[in-house]
Request: fold
Amino acid sequence: MSASTERKFLGRLSLPERRYLADALRTETVGGVLLLVAAVAALVWANTPIRDSYESVRDFHIGPASLGLDLSIQHWAADGLLAIFFFVAGIELKRELVAGELRDPKAAMLPVVAAICGMAAPALVYVLVNVIGNGSTDGWAVPTATDIAFALAVLAVIGTSLPSALRAFLLTLAVVDDLFAILIIAVFFTNDLNFFALGGAAAGLLVFWFLLRKGVRGWYVYVPLALVIWGLMYNSGVHATIAGVAMGLMLRCSTREGEQHSPGEHIEHLVRPLSAGFAVPLFALFSAGVSISSRAIGDVFTQPITLGVVLGLVVGKAIGIFGGTWLAARFTRAELNPELAWPDVFAVASLAGIGFTVSLLIGELAFAGDAVLTDEVKAAVLIGSLIAAVFASVLLKLRVRKYQALCAEEERDEDQDGIPDIYEQDDPAYHLRMAEIYEKKASEHRKRAELAGASRDGADRPA
Reply:
């Protein structure tokens, strides 16, 4: 990649980064579709005559009470399965910091500022709505999250293929977003601390790190240790998903001599399908099942708490990310990729307003003592995410032909060497290969023309 390309905002990705991105987003897209299916199934199940069975399954308790783990199915999904999701998020963050878009402080400034503004603005919108409407400010963190899987599922459903630079920007936003969501959960939603359990979890993490440093291998070592760390973290009062993040951050995500992929990337490749295809959809199944009626929908837009969540996701996210990006680009003098335009950035910012998974989790934590209010906030998250998805889809569809042309150019490989031609344009050998290909095509065309001419001459010659 040339120096001029590196200084561009939303410029061309390096080929390894592009391939990693394509592999990661492919899995997330499939997981996002499953997430949508699970959310719809939960809503149908919770709004039909058999809704009592939904509540019975959701509230069914299982687990060893002697270890403090006699939890409901919903609780297991939120604290247990989402630990897998945050484990993958931790690996993603580590990789971005050492090998991805966040490794260069100058290049990282734009997505980091955009993500911070994209979390601050929704929180501010929520607080303003609730201060004016005399509501509760406890849910200020609910609209701050972005759900990358849900966003990619929306792209898959509407048939829009974003250029890799925009997809990378969206993924980087989500990774930084996840980091701050983790910090919010750890700082603001920690119960009374059990220092004995917390010390045990810290000791377990130290052993985990030591084994990694010594190069010890084998899932039969790390999986039982991870379960022990998770159980201790849960009993410590710190949200158990923090254990997943901590272990993900400890994995090595840089390659050494002779390695095609780092251990972190290899493990992420193995665990991501479990997270995207099982853990997150199952969490959605037991968290998105809220009662939806015309009155409930009306209440979402009249109650300050729920209205703050909706406006935070739809308005706060879009304005925060777009405004933060524009200001950061202006002050750093970053040049926008000339093939894209600022409306493209605004469309992606609007798409980031889909805050499904982590928003539902934070909603449960923020209003844990009030089941009715928790369901109302969940309904607000669903409605806000839906509005953001529809709005972003309209904006993206307006530019769909441009995106299709850019994606086709990124994928073009006329010499069929497995490397897109756009990455070889500055290589003299590439131009020689292309000249040979064009000469071969021209020669074949001349031969066909000569054969066709000879055939016509033979037909016209008298018998």
